[in-house]
Amino acid sequence: MTDTASQPTTDLPPAWEPATVEAELYERWVAAGYFTSDAGGDRPPFCIVLPPPNVTGSLHMGHALDHTLMDALTRRRRMQGYEALWQPGMDHAGIATQNVVEREIAREGLTRHDLGREAFVERVWAWKGEYGGQIQGQMRRFGDSVDWSRDRFTMDEGLSKAVQTIFKRLFDEGLIYRAERIINWCPRCLTALSDIEVEHSEDEGELVSIRYGDGDRSIVVATTRAETMLGDTAVAVHPDDQRYAHLVGTEVELPLTGRMIPIVADEHVDPEFGTGAVKVTPAHDPNDFEIGQRAELPAITIMDERGVITAHGPFEGLDRFEARPAVVAALREQGRIVAEKRPYVHSVGHCSRCDTVVEPRLSLQWFVRVAPLAKAAGDAVRDGRTRIHPPELAKRYFDWVDNMHDWCISRQLWWGHRIPVWYGPNGKVMCVGPDEQPPPADEGWTQDPDVLDTWFSSALWPFSTLGWPERTPHLEKFYPNSVLVTGYDILFFWVVRMMMFGLYAMDGVQPFHEVYLHGLIRDETGKKMSKARGNVINPLDWMDRYGADATRFTLARGANPGSDMALAEDWAAGSRNFGNKLWNATRFALMNGASTARAVPARETLTEADRWILGLTDALVSEVDRLYEEYQFAKLSDALYHYTWDELCDWYLELAKVQLAEGGDRAEATRAVLGHVFDVVLRLLHPLIPFVTERLWTTLTGGESVVVAPWPAASGQPRDPEAERHVVAVQKLVTEIRRFRSDQGVKPGQRVSARLSGVDDAGLSALRPAVASLARLNDPGDDFAASASIEVAVAGGTVTVELDLSGTVDLDAERKRLAKDLAAAEKELAGCDAKLGNPNFTDKAPAPVVAKITARREIAVADIERISARLSAMSNG
RNA sequence: GGGCACAUAGCUCAGCGGAAGAGCACUCGGCUUACACCCGAGCGGUCGCAGGUUCGAUCCCUGCUGUGCCCA
Fold it and tell me: Could you tell me the keywords of this UniProt record (predicted)?
């Protein structure tokens, strides 16, 4: 057998240096085609579509989490022999991108109107060409195993065709319609927004009570938006409200305008709020619009698209926020302000893109009639065709789909998919399908100027990226997608819409088998990361300093289903340390000739230590598999961390040192076991930390790449409970000896002569050299003089360790330790006695529980006896 | 206003009916030839408060307090 010292040393440097190696490894994987999907062949499909990041953006920590989890799932399935497709791409982000380019041309003193629509859109494409690529670069640094050959963009020709196809189908079936409605309008972005693009916050405002009419023909209304009174067309009260019953059907004069407006009754007025009478402004409030519809009231728009008052009179030309105090002042002058409350905190909607206060606005827009689509989306989850993880979030999904409002899909933008509807002479309307010719412009036909909500095209993502509306081989193979991974915060934005459109476009087949919703990233104190707070961590910074693997492992370790995760730099450092630990442990194994070239010898020829670690390794494989099926990333990461560090490194490698020192067949067998366990753990870790495992695994095995290595399976060999008991006993014995040494102030490296008895009776004979090595003990020499002794109760018996500390023993320290142990044992005994002395317990508790407590009691009694004897011996001695 | 979570060691979180756990932080001792991004040992919790169910409750139920989120 080759001597360890003459083994060829590995070429691995003493520490893992991610920065220099990761990029090269990644490009090698791409070049090898590992990530490219093949729609042919017999492998079962596995498909994840990447939630398309915004083309204007860069990847933040939330993306890093999302990508880590998707990559882990994809890499594992690939190793398991699935045909894996992780579909990348970006969306065109209508409002955001248009804003960016408008800002850019504003620096040249231009507006989009100066350029004209066509030139502006060209300008956006040019911008996309120049800056839109940074996300791909970031994904390469993360190590994302996406199929770059299928990279897609929502504005691509094929995806645009998908948009036009589904629009036409929905239009023809009456599921898309155009109507004048109150919509959410952003006076800064100058476009309609859907309900979910509005964020509500509790803001300080004012509540002003205004008297309309005079004398006994007057009524007081309260409002937070005094300026809208210029557009009031009624006052509404509850039909059962006796206070106002006599006024219903009469009219009052609307101050400042001289208009007479009716007092109407409406069920939806809350008599408890304010005076119980509300002003009704159908053109500027969604609830008032509803009241207006029921009472057939006119709607008077008093603002332009920028929120500037257009009503004639002294307020014309004022911004809505300037008009508010001006209107109040004018009313006060007339003595019509009955009460004012400032600040008055109430909920105010803001544009999710630019934070401008949203103005409800009456306008002509396109809508999707969602009722039948939402019903199907709900049913797919109710039927279990799509499973939501964690299941608690399914309720939130149902609450949404079962109470969904029609979806406003038109946007007054230029960047996006233009609505494929043409308006002709005599009010004719024509929706044009993807393969149809638009009607001739010279006959007076013009296309609708608006574009579609970005989410409209994103909703097609799970199948438009696969080639739909063509029935491509990829669509056939990879639809439905296996799992969708995203944050719970975009359940409504995106997941619901993909469900609706997927079921509709694909003849009732749901887009996903499973949906996994992860939590949000927060800072170390649990606050949301935001630029305003200045607590944003850029994942690229972490990757620069700690490597992509460490960044990924940190995120995976924090990913408990459905709950948010707090991140701090310390976590990343810890993950970096773990990678380094793995690196050095593997290096150590390699330096000692660990190899996968030879199979692990038959179990009966191995040591108990070998059988113990092999058993733990099998258990680890099963546990990791089970946890992956449940999307328990935090737990599976922790299981891998614990196995690697606390069992493999802290114990098995130390035990292996003893076996390697023996030389001969024992050393050779140990090399095979080392090779096996590192092979397995590296493969298990690869989906989480792909780079370091690739470097180590290829060195260890000589294999081509761990990316395409088979996923580990348990050995099928039975575990050896006796060997495991014995190793656990050795762990306890060694720990107790170390504890004693530490109490006595013996330096960790100093060897101490010791005489052990009871080892054989405890069944630990074979592990005796291991104990000596791990506890730094020397065999007793001729001059051995025990100056201290400890007794350690282990599973098979009690081991007595006599130590020659060749000097004074710190009796005080020992007494303290014994007293502490005694107190613990006495507490334990008292607890057991209390239970066993209670007939209700012994009668009603299950027998195994009673037996367990009885056994614990016996151990406590023995401990007390032993420790007391030791203590009294000390005071007598 | 409606709904849903969560309150466990200094921090971030597991555990969710039968002996309180992890990582980080902290204390002490160590360069024990894989690793100081390390090794060894240790300190630290009436599991938010008050009731209830149970032989037994951090775990189940009720109420309260606090925090967060979603929806109006």
Answer: Aminoacyl-tRNA synthetase, ATP-binding, Coiled coil, Cytoplasm, Ligase, Nucleotide-binding, Protein biosynthesis
A572 touches strand B (CB under 7 A): no
Report the 10 Å Cβ neighbour count for A284: 25
Could you identify the residue written with the tokens 């009603």? Answer: A844
Instruction: Find the Å distance, CA of residue A792 to C1' of nucleotide B28.
Output: 24
Strand ranges inside A299-336, DSSP E: none
Q: Which residue has the tokens 């032993």?
A: A866
A831 pLDDT band, cuts 50/70/90, is confident
Residue A565, CB, strand B, below 7 Å: yes
From residues 721-760 of A, which are strand B contacts by CB within 7 A?
A: 735, 738-739, 741-743, 745, 747-749
Q: What is the pLDDT of residue A811?
A: 85
Residue position matching structure tokens 């004018």: A330
Give the residue among A480, A474, A477, A482 at the shortest CA–CA distance from A149.
A474
Q: A4: Cβ under 7 Å from strand B?
A: no
Q: How far is the CA of A845 from the C1' of B57 (A)?
A: 15
pLDDT given at position A59? 85
Closest by CA to A314, choosing from A257, A261, A229, is A257
Q: Is the CB of A122 under 7 A from strand B?
A: no
- The integer distance in angstroms from the CA atom of A849 to the C1' atom of B18 is 7
**A30 sits within 7 Å of strand B by its CB:** no
- How much is the pLDDT for A877? 58
Q: pLDDT tens across A106-161, in order?
A: 888 888 888 888 998 998 999 888 888 889 999 999 999 999 999 999 999 999 99
Measuring from the CA of residue A654 to each C1', which nucleotide is nearest? B34
Q: Cα–Cα distance between A23 and A21 in angstroms, integer?
A: 6
Tokens representing A18?
Answer: 């991610």
- Joined together, the tokens standing for residue A363 give 């306008």
Tokens of A614: 């092999």
Whole-number Å distance, CA A517 to C1' B47? 28
Strand B, nucleotides covered by protein (CB < 7 Å): 3-5, 11-14, 18-19, 22-25, 28-32, 34-43, 54-56, 69-72
Tokens 């491509």 belong to A472
Give the Cα separation of A388 and A524 in Å (integer): 28
Q: Residue A49 has which token pair?
A: 């579509």
Radius of gyration of chain A (CA): 37
DSSP-derived letter for residue A335 is T
Separation between Cα atoms, residue A660 and residue A677, nearest integer Å: 16
Closest CA to A211 of A196, A222, A224: A222
Task: Give residues 822-861 of chain A lying near strand B (Cβ < 7 A).
Answer: 828, 835, 838, 840-841, 844-846, 849, 852, 856, 859
What are the residues whose beta carbons fall under 8 Å from the beta carbon of A509, sequence distance 6 or more? A479, A480, A502, A503
Q: Is the CB of A634 under 7 A from strand B?
A: yes
Q: Which domains does chain A have, with CATH numbers?
A: 31-175+370-405+453-518 (3.40.50.620), 191-360 (3.90.740.10), 568-719 (1.10.730.10), 744-876 (1.10.287.380)
| pLDDT in the model for residue A723 | 94
**Residue A217 above 90 pLDDT?**
no
Mean pLDDT over A215-227 rounds to 85
Find which nucleotide's C1' atom is closest to A584's CA. Answer: B34
